[in-house]
Amino acid sequence: MRLSSALLALPLLTAVKALHFYFESNERRCFMEELPSDTIVEGHYKAYIWDEPANTWKMDEELGIHVAVEELSSGHTVVNTRGPPDGRFTFTSHEPGDHNICLHSNITGGWLTNQHIKLYLDINVGSSKADNEADSSHVTTLSSKLRELNNKVADIQREQRYMREVEATFRDASELTNSRAVWWSLLQIGVLIGAGVWQMRYLKVYFEDKKLR
């Protein structure tokens, strides 16, 4: 039963996100991706610039796309590169959590020289895909399927490790909060006991003085 459940979950592990958006040449577009640690991320982009005289989108080789990826938890920059209008980037997450992926063009200038850009972006989150064409002369179809299965099992293990890391962080925060609550309760009890002892001593001295009078 466990094996069948795991096999049903395998197609969901490698997330592929495809999108396209428009922006000006002086704009910077960013979005966040939550990733487990030690996860390979592959990105493929295609940028087109608007040709006003031809009234169409075209790919200009002079157009460059700058890609920057930052781990928000540590502030570490894992990618900082500029590529052609049709390019790729790859990185491996070192820390679990949100990663900020930003893209902008190399075209600069005032508002009169701004260019309209359309960018297609595909992001593949998970293990690198095997190059089946290069290995077709050396391995059989069955061995290729087994290799893909092993990659997906490794993805399951990374997801489980990430969940354990999140659970450990939450548990530590809960234990710290509970510990502070216990110490605060003990402090309140101590203050109440001290106040009670002081009142008893004060009343005792007061009545003794009154009796002597």
TrEMBL record:
UniProt family annotation: Belongs to the EMP24/GP25L family.
According to the record, the signal peptide region is 1-18
InterPro entries the record matches = Emp24-like (IPR015720), GOLD_dom (IPR009038)
Q: Does the keyword S-adenosyl-L-methionine apply?
A: no
Stated name of the protein: Eclair-PA
For this UniProt entry, which segments traverse the membrane?
181-203
The residue ranges of the GOLD domain are 28-125
Indicate how the chain sits in the lipid bilayer: Single-pass type I membrane protein
What is the organism lineage in this UniProt record?
Answer: Eukaryota, Fungi, Dikarya, Basidiomycota, Agaricomycotina
Compartment(s) of residence: Membrane
Biological source species = Kwoniella dejecticola CBS 10117
| Annotated keywords | Membrane, Signal, Transmembrane, Transmembrane helix
Q: Name one GO cellular component term.
A: membrane
